[in-house]
Amino acid sequence: LSESLLGNLELTGTLALAVFTAALGSLQFGYSLGVINAPQKVIIENHYARALGVSLERSRMLGNSTDLPEEPKDPSVVMYWSLSVAVFSIGGMISSFLVGFIADLRGRVKGMLMVNFLAIIAGLLMGLCKMWMPHIMVIMGRAVMGFYCGLTSGLVPMYIGEIAPKAYRGALGTLHQLAIVIGILLSQVIGLDFVLGNDEMWPLLLGLSGAPAILQSLLLPLCPESPRYLYILLGKEQEAKKSLLRLKGPCDTTSDLEEMKREKEEAAKEPKVSIRSLIFSSVYRQQLIVALMMHLSQQLSGINAIFYYSTSIFEQAGVSQPIYATIGVGVINTIFTMVSVMLVDRAGRRTLTLVGLGGMCVCAIAMTVGLKYQLDLPWMSYVSMVAIFLFVSFFEIGPGPIPWFIVAEIFSQGPRPAAIALAGCCNWTSNFIIALTFPYIQALMGCYVFILFAALLLCFTLFIYFRVPETKGKTFEEIAAIFQKKRPMAKHSTELDQLKTSTDA
């Protein structure tokens, strides 16, 4: 793959720099997702207890070990800790609605640059939390960081999708997810008690969440703006041509400009669509249902149950050092996302998503069987562990990376920002619901909890098979045409007229 990438003029150093720089925001997103669930959880809870004046006996004996016996926790400590975890998703849910506004306000590059101050502020709030009340400072920092990540989870795929050559749009789009899983793995390794996950260094561990934003802020001015934004939204053809030449190297840009010209003409027929218009419009209903279902399949697959609670799951499976098994999950996560990068433009988005969801369904059933019979048959604990590793592998082959960039592929320029905002909000909301409800569902269903996810995975697999078209190697225009063929033209024309007269578009 690397040889074919280097040998193609379309993949230049400037394009590599632009994609790498944008993906730093995704790395920050992944780090923030993983860092709060690192093994220093007990340490942070004890600092909360001290600040609240409900210090436990073990708080006074706190050292670097996280293998302290469980004791009853004060309700206020539990509340503040839960809020520290959940407020991140709440911030993301709110800010995801602003992705389109920020992206169109000053452009994709300046939009990413503008929001970086949020990540830096969040990092400072958490890194300096010992200077005031740590529970308040961490919650404020997590809220601001969640707000930032809600924006960057939309801006990054949008920018990469718009600058990527058609032949490599899938591979480059998958790098968003690759950066996320690398960030998660990084937070798990740095969060070990002998690195930064200890009594003295945990504020620095949390504060490092904002570090990638500093590097990204230095590199973004070197990145060209999206040619599609310059040409289609601003009408600046010469600037769009210069941006194309920087991204693709010395080449004939005529075909690219012609494609953008046609897309601009289509965009003129379908004025910029607001979130409200998109929700109630039948013109884009097919695409919107596909976009939302793709994101729901990612979050309701049960993957976050693995990410958030993998340590306790491995303990239940009889692993003596569950934290290292959890890091092993992170490594597998990263490796198979790389596999997806190599396969997505060869096998196709639809195929990889079907293979991923189907494989996860089988693994969820195997996990249930392993957990059910591991007390009677000790070797069943190995079945559970193998099932967990394969579950994560199948997720990263398709259902993990593909929903993030396929939304930008299936929507044209007019409704694209609103669609990405809605899909992002759907993703963050379902993430929040799973994080909040999984412990209760697990308590209710016990070892059968993953049967619920297996049923959901089967439903999503059938939906993808019957309703989602392949977008590999197709232009934005060709993809839009696929969906237009699925609805009556008369109804389509009437709805376009309604959109043109809509005051909130």
- The low-confidence parts are 1-9, 57-72, 489-496, 501-505
CATH class descriptor of the largest domain: Mainly Alpha
Oligomer: single chain
The portion of residues forming beta strands comes to under 5%
Largest sheet: none
Radius of gyration: 23 Å
The helix content, as a percent range, equals over 70%
The CATH superfamily of the largest domain is identified as MFS general substrate transporter like domains
Average pLDDT reading = 84
Compute the separation of the termini in Å: 42 Å
Series of H and E elements: HHHHHHHHHHHHHHHHHHHHHHHHH
- Total domains: 2
Number of helices: 25
Tell me the total number of β-strands.
Answer: 0
Shape label: globular
CATH topology category name of the largest domain:
Growth Hormone, Chain: A
CATH architecture of the largest domain: Up-down Bundle
Structural class: mainly alpha
Pfam families: Sugar_tr (PF00083)
Family: Belongs to the major facilitator superfamily. Sugar transporter (TC 2.A.1.1) family.
Keywords: Membrane, Transmembrane, Transmembrane helix, Transport
Protein name: Solute carrier family 2 member 2
